[in-house]
Write a structure and sequence with these properties.
Helix content is 39%, strand content 15%.
Length: 54
């Protein structure tokens, strides 16, 4: 009886953490960046740069 109780308690403690770790894509997601009017997103620097016309 004690072994089953310990095994169940361990499963209840460990499994939710494993489930969250398996479904975590935080590092892989990219969010769209929007810049103010008159500027564009520069991927190299990761910032908005003003649009220059000549």
């Amino acid at each position: 009886m004690t072994f089953k109780t310990l095994l169940t308690a361990a499963a209840i403690t460990i499994l939710p953490g494993l489930a969250m770790a398996a479904g975590c894509n935080y590092e892989k997601q990219q969010q769209a960046m929007s810049c103010a009017e008159g500027s564009t997103f520069d991927e190299a620097s990761g910032t908005c740069t003003p649009v220059t016309t000549s």
